[in-house]
């Protein structure tokens, strides 16, 4: 899919002002998570992108993040997260060439809102990454965890984009249920379950889980607020 | 200028011990005898890079000794340019490890049986080799540690806590490796001492004049690198030691990036402590060493307690061995130390001056080649007639994260470089960046390796720029 059409408006990926009702409405969730600039143009069967689309060397790969609401799995949050992981793993496993996995990550990196300055606070910094990654989390009124992330590395942004696609809007229990080894086949450069400062998947996922856990604890204590 | 002699670099199948080859064979290829000079480098000053000393470059000559280099990574020829992080191991070292475990494995300084005696002999011979390699006056001045980091911690916890008092000053440079900073932060926190940092001058080299100005009677210790792992710059250690001693301060030299690449003579430098790491000098991981002057080591209390370091143990106290045993509690990394000894034999066989000359040539070629990459910034001093820099370059390309560069270089081109802060965050802050990419060479690298890097880097930059 070599797209050329440009969509200039970018729908905010993450907004604390979105109503819980809107977030939880059954089939709209995935659709909302796809920025306008990446939505599929079904009529033309083309992908509208604001960046150059990367050819995938003839491999037909299901693009997990590009799914429309109609293609979305069942609405139950638990199934959503598990299914998304499967889709993502399938997608990256299908990319035989390492460079294609890099390209795919860059493709997804473009989905993160640019220069999300509020997320680049020192308290939001993910410890243990070789690049700088910032993650923020908060719990909405429906008890779902909303994530926002940024990085100074495009490839790390791609990791963040995928993780947010999987976990944003999920319930805390579902976020915490994800195992780092679930993502081992999605890795680029660092293989398997390696716990390393260069394993961005691992480190960002763990940071998201820590924040989710902290939000749960806060809510239990009757304190509702933002965890940074 | 390059000589295509890949014919010499036989593509080896996967390494297997039965086909271990001796580096002695190399002598027949070399028209010039191995030369090991006792002279030290004129630190901080350039020596004209000479062409490779023989018709076959040292890189091409030695590549067959490193089986790991002859493999494909991600579909491309491996180009290993991360020697600042760790070096590869020649067959001679692998063979020494295998021989030790096959023939001599036993605990040292324990049993009277044959194997223990043999292991002890080999282990102490390795100490002697290290001693000779850096020209220590006595092998008892060499303490085996796990690595250079442990060697610095040993000095910090033993000498530092005993000798440094409140308001004493420890002078470091902003370009020190974290392992030469953090232990002294511990000491400062425990003793009330003050850490003072020397910043960079306009040439992006730690300002030695300012360092000298900082020295006073309050100064108890100066901690400096010999060769910067980021800037590639070389500090005039002999000069610094002279000035530090004038005010009664001791000097600890982090020589991790110099000992593997040039002649280092501790008696000539006159440093009080010097540390280095085996794995950066073609030896195994898990072993490093501390050099300390005999009188200073003898006055230092133990760092770690346990077997081997004691003389007598009573219910409530113990007496301790003399150095170096006093500082080697527990069973040491015997095989690794012996492997380090084999690495030293290998390096000495090539000749450290020869290695240095070749790396100067190759390092200059790397620097000049990198300058051709658009929007690149290379950190540290530009090599010139007056400024010598080591064979490594840390750099950034505008608007591309170094880790993204390194990832693409690896995944698409099989080129291994390092990205990140290289354990030097204070230095990167001073340079105004959070991270950099680094290509660091060793004597087994070639002009073709550098050419491959440049080609791959240009492709990488084009790739990322196409996304903008």
Automatic annotation (TrEMBL), chain A:
InterPro entries, sorted: Fe-S_metab-assoc_dom (IPR003808)
SUPFAM superfamilies (alphabetical): SufE/NifU (SSF82649)
Membrane-spanning residues: none
Region ranges (Disordered): 1-28
Feature: compositional bias, Polar residues: 1-14
Pfam families assigned to the protein according to its UniProt record, in alphabetical order: SufE (PF02657)
Fe-S metabolism associated domain location: 91-210
Biased composition annotated in UniProt, kind: Low complexity: 15-28
Family membership: Belongs to the SufE family.
Name this polypeptide is given: Fe-S metabolism associated domain-containing protein
Originating organism: Malus baccata (Siberian crab apple)
Phylogenetic lineage: Eukaryota, Viridiplantae, Streptophyta, Embryophyta, Tracheophyta
From TrEMBL, chain B:
Record carries keyword Transferase: yes
Keyword Transferase: yes
Keywords on record: Pyridoxal phosphate, Transferase
Record-linked Pfam families: Aminotran_5 (PF00266)
GO-annotated biological processes: cysteine metabolic process
InterPro entries found in the cross-reference section: Aminotrans_V_dom (IPR000192), Cys_dSase_SufS (IPR010970), PyrdxlP-dep_Trfase (IPR015424), PyrdxlP-dep_Trfase_major (IPR015421), PyrdxlP-dep_Trfase_small (IPR015422)
Positions of transmembrane segments: none
A single MF term (Gene Ontology): pyridoxal phosphate binding
Cofactor(s) required for function per UniProt: pyridoxal 5'-phosphate
SUPFAM superfamilies reported in the protein's UniProt record: PLP-dependent transferases (SSF53383)
CDD domains documented for this protein: SufS_like
Catalytic activities: (sulfur carrier)-H + L-cysteine = (sulfur carrier)-SH + L-alanine
UniProt domain Aminotransferase class V: residue ranges: 79-453
EC number: 2.8.1.7
PANTHER family reported for this sequence: CYSTEINE DESULFURASE, CYSTEINE DESULFURASE 1, CHLOROPLASTIC
Descriptive protein name: cysteine desulfurase
Organism: Malus baccata (Siberian crab apple)
Organismal lineage: Eukaryota, Viridiplantae, Streptophyta, Embryophyta, Tracheophyta
């Amino acid at each position: 899919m070599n797209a050329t059409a440009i969509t200039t408006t970018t729908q905010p990926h993450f907004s604390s002002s979105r109503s819980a009702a809107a977030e939880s409405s059954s089939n709209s969730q995935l659709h909302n998570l796809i920025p306008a600039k990446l939505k599929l143009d079904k009529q033309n069967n083309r992908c509208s992108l604001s960046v150059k689309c990367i050819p995938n060397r003839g491999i037909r790969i299901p693009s997990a993040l590009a799914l429309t609401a109609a293609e979305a799995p069942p609405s139950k949050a638990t199934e959503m997260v598990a299914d998304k992981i499967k889709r993502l793993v399938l997608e990256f496993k299908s990319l035989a060439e390492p460079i294609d996995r890099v390209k795919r990550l860059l493709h997804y990196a473009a989905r993160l809102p640019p220069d999300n300055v509020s997320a680049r606070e020192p308290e939001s910094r993910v410890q243990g990454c070789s690049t700088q990654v910032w993650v923020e989390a908060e719990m909405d009124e429906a008890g779902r965890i909303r994530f926002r992330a940024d990085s100074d590395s495009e490839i790390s942004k791609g990791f963040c984009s995928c993780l947010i696609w999987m976990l944003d809007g999920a319930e805390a229990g579902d976020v915490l249920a994800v195992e780092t080894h679930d993502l081992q086949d999605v890795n680029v450069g660092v293989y398997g379950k390696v716990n390393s400062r260069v394993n961005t998947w691992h480190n960002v996922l763990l940071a998201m889980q820590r924040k989710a856990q902290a939000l749960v604890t806060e809510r239990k204590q009757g304190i509702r607020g933002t965890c940074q | 200028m390059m000589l295509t002699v890949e014919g010499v670099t036989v593509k080896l199948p996967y390494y297997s011990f039965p086909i271990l080859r001796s580096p002695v064979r190399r002598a027949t290829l070399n028209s010039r005898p191995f030369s090991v000079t006792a002279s030290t480098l004129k630190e901080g000053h350039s020596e004209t890079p000479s062409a490779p000393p023989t018709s076959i470059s040292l890189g091409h000559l030695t590549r067959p000794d490193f089986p790991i280099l002859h493999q494909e990574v991600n579909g491309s020829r491996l180009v290993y340019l991360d020697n600042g992080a760790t070096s590869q191991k020649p067959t001679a070292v692998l063979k020494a490890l295998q021989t030790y475990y096959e023939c001599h494995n036993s605990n040292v300084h324990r049993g009277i049986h044959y194997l223990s005696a043999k292991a002890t002999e080999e282990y102490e011979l390795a100490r002697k080799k290290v001693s000779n390699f850096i020209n220590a006056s006595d092998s008892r001045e060499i303490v085996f540690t796990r690595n250079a980091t442990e060697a610095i911690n040993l000095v910090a916890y033993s000498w530092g806590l005993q000798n440094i008092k409140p308001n004493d000053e420890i002078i470091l440079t902003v370009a020190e490796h974290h392992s030469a900073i953090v232990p002294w932060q511990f000491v400062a926190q425990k003793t009330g001492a003050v850490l003072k940092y020397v910043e960079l001058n306009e040439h992006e080299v730690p300002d030695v004049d300012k360092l000298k100005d900082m020295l006073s009677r309050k100064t108890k210790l100066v901690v400096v690198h010999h060769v910067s792992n980021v800037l590639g710059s070389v500090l005039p250690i002999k000069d610094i030691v002279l000035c530090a001693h004038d005010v009664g301060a001791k000097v600890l030299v982090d020589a991790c990036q110099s000992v593997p690449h040039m002649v280092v003579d501790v008696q000539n430098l006159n440093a009080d402590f010097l540390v280095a790491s085996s794995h950066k000098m073609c030896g195994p991981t898990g072993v490093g060493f501390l050099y300390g002057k005999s009188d200073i080591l003898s006055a230092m209390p133990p760092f770690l307690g346990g077997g081997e370091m004691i003389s007598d143990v009573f219910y409530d106290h113990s007496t301790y061995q003399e150095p170096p045993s006093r500082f080697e509690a527990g069973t040491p990394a015997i095989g690794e130390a012996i492997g380090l000894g084999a690495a030293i034999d290998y390096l000495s066989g090539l000749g450290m001056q020869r290695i240095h000359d070749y790396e100067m040539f190759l390092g200059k070629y790397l620097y000049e080649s990198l300058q051709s990459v658009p929007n690149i910034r290379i950190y540290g001093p530009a090599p010139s007639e007056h400024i010598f820099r080591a064979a490594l370059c840390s750099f950034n390309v505008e608007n591309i994260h170094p880790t993204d560069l390194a990832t693409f270089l690896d995944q698409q081109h099989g080129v291994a470089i390092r990205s990140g802060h290289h354990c030097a965050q204070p230095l990167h802050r001073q340079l105004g960046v959070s991270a950099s990419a680094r290509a660091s060479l060793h004597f087994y690298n070639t002009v073709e390796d550098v050419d491959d890097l440049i080609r791959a880097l240009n492709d990488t930059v084009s790739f990322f720029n196409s996304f903008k």
